[in-house]
Amino acid sequence: MADLEPLTATEEAFWRALMRIVLTLPRHLHNDMVRATGLSSSEYTVIMNLSEAPNRQLRMADLASATGLSPSRTTRVVDDLENRGLVTRRTSSADARSNLAEITAQGLTKLRSAWPSHLSSVRNRVLDHVDPRTLTKAAQALEAVAAQLENDRA
Q: N- or C-end of the chain: fewer Cβ atoms within 10 A?
């Protein structure tokens, strides 16, 4: 450990800012969504991913992977959405061991009505505070970190 280089001042500032974001942004986005739409951020993410999927349906394992939620958390969120009529779940005809979640017409309506609030929250909390000239570089840096984390998870 003695040969580890300490972080530079710029690296330290970046790391600390990133940690503040990681620890606080999800709570703010969640609270914004619940207050404006009645959907949690996890629920919004699930129905958004289902709306973009082929036939508006995904295997539960694929939905968990797409959303970044744990399989058990995905199941709980889908249970709640199903109880509200926003999602249905059924056994896959291609593989009886798999369950498919599918967004309903009511779920699509809810997603469309929630989208402006989601957009406003993301802009107000994040994008309005990033210089547009640096956005591409920032996105590339965050994508590189996200890709590494996804590789580590596999």
A: N
